[in-house]
Amino acid sequence: xxxxxxxxxxxxxxxxxxxxxxxxxxxxxxxxxxxxxxxxxxxxxxxxxxxxxxxxxxxxxxxxxxxxxxxxxxxxxxxxxxxxxxxxxxxxxxxxxxxxxxxxxxxxxxxxxxxxxxxxxxxxxxxxxxxxxxxxxxxxxxxxxxxxxxxxxxxxxxxxxxxxxxxxxxxxxxxxxxxxxxxxxxxxxxxxxxxxxxxxxxxxxxxxxxxxxxxxxxxxxxxxxxxxxxxxxxxxxxxxxxxxxxxxxxxxxxxxxxxxxxxxxxxxxxxxxxxxxxxxxxxxxxxxxxxxxxxxxxxxxxxxxxxxxxxxxxxxxxxxxxxxxxxxxxxxxxxxxxxxxxxxxxxxxxxxxxxxxxxxxxxxxxxxxxxxxxxxxxxxxxxxxxxxxxxxxxxxxxxxxxxxx
Length: 405
Hints:
The protein is α/β, with parallel strands linked by helices. The protein has helices spanning about 10-20, 60-65, 115-120, 130-135, 140-155, 165-170, 190-200, 245-255, 315-330, 390-405; strands at about 5, 25-30, 50-55, 75, 80-85, 90-95, 180-185, 205-210, 215-220, 220-225, 230-235, 240-245, 265-270, 280-285, 290-295, 300-305, 345-355, 375.
C-alpha cells in the first residue's frame, strides 16, 4: 500500500512523516524546486518573512521536537515585545499576556478593563462581525494591540476581519506559556524544512521535486491515477493520496470542492546586513514594517494584509522600510553597525498568502472527499485561521484519516 503526498508544504511534510513513521511507503511530490510551501525558506535558508510561533502553537512545537529541531527555535524577546510607534516616537515593551499587564511598563496603550473585556468577548460565542466594529469604543487599545494581533494571525485588515476567527486564537492564549514567542534562530531552512525532510528520509519516505500534478483521475469515487504530465502513476487498489495543495490548486484537481475564494497578500523584504546578534524581534506601529526580525545573517520585514504594498516595487518599498528599521535599531539599541544607505534588498510577494478571514460561515471541507484521498492544508483546518499550526494539524489529520481507512 503506497501513499502519495501531493505538496511539500508544512501540511504535506507533517502528513508524510506521520504516514512514513506508521510504516507506510510514502512518496512526496512537490511542483517547485524546494520544500516548504508558502512558508518556504529562501535559497540561502532564511525565512520568507518573519515567521514566529507562540506557546499556544502546540502542534507545531511538538512537530519541531519530533524532527529534532526544537532547540533551533529561540525566544528573542523574553522581557516583552519591543514596539516602536512612529506616530509619536514612543518605544516600549509590551507583554503578550494580559496577566502581565499589572506591570504598567508592559501594558499596551489604551489597555483598560473595558478594552480588555471587549477583546476577550470575541473568544465567546456570539455574532460574527468585523473586529474594528467590536473594538470601536477602544481605538487606542485596538491600534496598539488588537490590530497587530489581527494582522499577524488573520492576515486580514481589522475592518474586514472576522471576530469569530480571532476568537479561535484568543481561546488558545490563556494557558501557561501560551504567549511566549519563538522564532527560528537560523531560518526556516535549517530549523524546520531540512530537519523535516531528514526525518522523513530516516522513516523511509522519498521526495520528488518539479512534479506538478496535472489531474487526479477518478473512478467509482476513488482516485485511480495521478497524471503528472510526462508520467502518470496508476494507483493500485490499496494505494492512497494526500492532497496538500493551496485551495485553488485543490479545486482545480477536485472541481467539486468548496474552497476559499478571497485571499490576502503578504509582502516580505529581506535586507543584506550582518551583525553580532542576538536574534531580535521588533513590532512597529504606524509603519510599513509591521514586524522586523533581526538575525546575524540579515534583516527580514513582513507586511501582512499588504493589499497596497503588493502593487509597489523594490525602489519604493526598500528605502522606506530601511529608514524605519534604522529608527527601531536606535530605539532599542540593537547591536552592530546600521548603515544609512539602504543595503541590497530582496522583495518577495505572496499575492495569495492566506485566505481572507472575513465574517461568515467557516468552510469545513470533508477530510476525505474521495474514498482513498485525504485533504490537508492550513485552509482545510476550520478550528484555526491559516497558520503554521493549522497546517501541521491538518496534515496529521489527513494521515489519521488514511490510516483509519
